[in-house]
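Input record, target 12 of the design panel.
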């Protein structure tokens, strides 16, 4: 008589759990990017659109993320043998986000009362100050002293355009720390995975003649912000600015070396 089959069948039982998360899909993904640094030996990889897999030796938990407007739906799938990994992941998720499990027998929870919309930053300097006290950003996107000083005198008036960029740079830092940038070109990573129109290099003139304009010090090391995003057109400080940054090889943070008026070029 074979007594091993029932146990084997139990060990491979599939679980599928659905949760409502009253936070954005970006916030949920940001938490998933913490997995490699929070669970020893765990790896995070993407296997489809809005689909991610967390793995330990002998255990795997799959996630799918769906944006439902005011909330985000998270679906977790795993076998019984991965229950221990799932418990650790659930604790991590709940440490950062309001997470509530849903079942077919219970009605959806009432969404929390809408909080007053926070007052948006009125200028670039105020925006940078807010970023530097935002726990979602601190340690992932770093504004060097030079970038902070430039923000103080930056006259760019379209301040509302900055927040989506910094959010995506924060997500990019998580992706890089989780190793999700490996196996794809830098161009595909920034354009397809992160969704930012990043120019990857300085021009020859910028590099050779004006290189120091894009340098800044981070943790005692001089970094050159070759990657950059240009906002607006022309050379009016009120309608054009640039964000230059580098990736710190030691900590995986996005280090902003220049944040303000467009830097010098051959035509300036």
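The sequence produced for target 12 reads:
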């Amino acid at each position: 008589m074979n007594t091993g089959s029932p146990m084997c069948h139990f060990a491979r039982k599939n679980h599928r759990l659905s949760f409502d998360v009253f936070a954005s899909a970006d916030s949920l993904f940001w938490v998933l990017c913490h997995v490699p640094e929070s669970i020893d030996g765990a790896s995070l990889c993407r296997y489809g659109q809005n689909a991610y897999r967390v793995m330990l030796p002998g255990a795997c938990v799959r996630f799918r993320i769906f944006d439902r407007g005011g909330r985000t739906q998270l679906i977790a799938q795993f076998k019984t043998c991965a229950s221990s990994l799932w418990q650790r992941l659930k604790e991590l998720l709940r440490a950062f986000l309001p997470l509530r499990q849903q079942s077919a027998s219970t009605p959806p929870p009432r969404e929390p009362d809408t909080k007053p919309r926070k007052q948006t930053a009125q200028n670039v300097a105020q925006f940078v100050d807010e970023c530097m006290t935002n726990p979602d950003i601190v340690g992932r996107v770093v504004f060097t002293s030079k970038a902070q000083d430039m923000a103080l005198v930056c006259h760019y008036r379209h301040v509302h355009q900055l927040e989506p960029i910094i959010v995506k740079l924060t997500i990019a830092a998580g992706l890089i720390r989780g190793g999700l940038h490996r196996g794809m070109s830098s161009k595909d990573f920034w354009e397809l995975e992160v969704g930012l129109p990043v120019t990857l290099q300085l021009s020859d003139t910028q590099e050779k003649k004006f290189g120091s304009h894009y340098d800044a010090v981070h943790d005692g090391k001089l970094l050159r912000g070759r990657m950059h995003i240009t906002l607006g057109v022309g050379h009016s400080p009120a309608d054009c600015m640039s964000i230059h940054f580098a990736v710190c090889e030691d900590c995986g943070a996005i280090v902003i070396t220049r944040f303000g008026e467009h830097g010098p070029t051959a035509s300036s």
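Residues 94 and 183 are 31 Å apart (CA to CA).
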